[in-house]
Specification:
alpha/beta, Alpha-D-Glucose-1,6-Bisphosphate, Chain A, domain 3, 6-stranded mixed beta sheet, 15 helices, 38% helix
């Protein structure tokens, strides 16, 4: 076997099973991960956590990955089925030396992959270690690492006696529930909510959370099924939210929320069944947090509406705009001691959760705000709908750099920011164009003070990029 280097992406390892990623590649990656960690951690015996989502290929990849880690001389801590947020929390809370979560996030059932962290749940990205792990894998494949020969197992069977179990399900839920105000516990039963976990791994934890909150809830596709028979585990796709929209309308529910394949993203819908952009939820959470803890730093990604920055300032916070991507955001939050961060994609990060995703925190705070304000979610979000936002528009292009340079020259009179692609701000509107990490695609988002200006500029930019 020769490992496919393109499965090592910007933030994780991901590919189609078994064409791109299989048991042998998982074994090699496990072996390489131990060698990688040993370069930075001088402990004699490393304890490495492995968790997994409920994809059909995850159990066999777990055995292979475990075998590689054990052969490398490290201990394996088996969390079993787990969401990514629970996995991160476990590594940080119990001070393990690193971890791997076997998941392909929101991708369809034929995909699988791995997310890696160091101690304290610090993510390992392409720029902070994945490329180095790939290099070690290639060295193992050629049977030479530092002059020593290694046997690459063709048939992988993990030594179960050397694998220790760690169940943090109850502790993780308790940690999330401790923020609930006592006054809210009596009131949650007034709220009607529809949730959709897409037959994915977040189902059991979401069900238990709702049970503890005593909301009137309808849980769609709660049963675990790694083939995802009802719809894609990606709540940002229009076809994935049709069921939840129907239930909200038919039940006259107060809100809905959908989780992705590994439970690290949460997407909200209001009481009318309308999906809510992630940046508006960031604005709402910024207000909630700053009302309780003023003068804190709040991070938002550069695609976010200007209302996010304005809201943070209004409630005496310190806004920090930053590039897109969980590994970059988590690093910046640690560096600047930022209390909360949000992305348009529905990732929300919290300092108390080791600067990692905290979807349950966000859900609890939204529910409490609805109770405290006596407003519907639609009414709360309408307060932030000050501008006209295009959403993301994708263009296939042959030469991304050439197009970006052309755009920069045409709009050079604006305020230019090259933090992630190119964002250019004017008095009445702004736009961002950034390239995909994996495809010959440019993504455009723009926002304006009037609908007419937004439509005009969208046509103008679309013509430039499309040509």
């Amino acid at each position: 076997m020769k490992i496919k280097s393109d499965i090592f992406r910007a933030y994780d390892v991901r590919g189609v099973y078994p064409e791109d990623i299989d048991e042998e590649s998982a074994f090699l990656i496990g072996r390489a991960f131990v060698l990688f960690l040993k370069k930075y951690n001088k402990k004699k015996q490393l304890n490495i956590v492995i968790s997994r989502d409920n994809r059909l290929s995850s159990p066999s990849l777990f055995k292979a990955l475990s075998s590689g880690i054990l052969e490398g001389g490290a201990n394996v801590i088996d969390m079993g089925l787990s969401t990514s947020p629970m996995f991160y929390w476990c590594v940080g809370r119990y001070k393990f030396d690193g971890g791997v979560n076997i998941t392909a996030s929101h991708n369809p059932t034929q995909y699988n992959g791995m997310k890696f962290v160091r101690e304290n749940a610090v993510p390992i990205s392409g720029k902070t270690g994945l490329k180095e792990i790939l290099k070690i894998v290639i060295e193992i494949e050629s049977s030479v690492v530092g002059g020593k020969k290694f046997f690459v197992a063709k048939k992988v069977v993990a030594d179960r006696e050397k694998i220790k179990k760690k169940n943090v399900f109850t502790d993780y839920l308790k940690f999330n529930l401790k923020i609930v105000k006592k006054s809210s516990l009596k009131e949650f039963k007034k709220i009607s909510i529809v949730v959709d976990t897409a037959n994915a791994v977040s189902g059991p934890a979401v069900a238990e959370l709702l049970k503890n909150l005593s909301c009137k809830s309808k849980h769609l596709f709660k049963k675990l099924d790694g083939s995802f028979p009802n719809h894609s585990p990606d709540p940002l796709k229009k076809e994935s939210i049709k069921s939840i929209q129907r239930e909200i309308i038919s039940r006259k529910a107060d809100l809905g929320c959908g989780f992705d394949g590994d439970g690290d993203r949460i997407m909200f819908l209001d009481n009318l069944g309308n999906p809510i952009s992630g940046d508006l939820i960031t604005a709402l959470l910024a207000q909630i947090i700053l009302e309780e803890r003023p003068n804190q730093k709040i991070l938002y990604d550069v695609r976010s509406s200007n209302i996010v920055r304005e809201t943070i300032k209004r409630y005496k916070g310190i806004p920090v705009g930053y590039r897109i991507g969980h590994s970059f955001i988590k690093a910046k939050m640690r560096e600047k001691d930022i209390v909360f961060g949000g992305e348009v994609s529905g990732h929300y990060y919290l300092r108390e959760h080791y600067f990692c995703e905290a979807p349950f925190f966000v859900l609890i705070k939204v529910l409490e705000k609805m109770l405290q304000s006596k407003k519907s979610l639609a009414e709360l979000i309408n307060e932030y709908k000050k501008y006209f936002y295009s959403g993301e528009i994708n263009f296939k292009v042959k030469d991304k750099e050439k197009v970006l340079n052309k755009i920069e020259q045409k709009y050079k009179k604006g305020k230019i920011l090259k933090l992630d692609g190119i964002r250019i701000d004017f008095e009445d509107w702004w736009f961002i164009v950034r390239g995909s990490n994996t495809e010959p695609v440019l993504r455009l988002i723009l926002e304006a003070k009037t609908k007419a200006l937004m439509i005009e500029k969208k046509k103008e930019l679309s013509k430039i990029i499309g040509s």
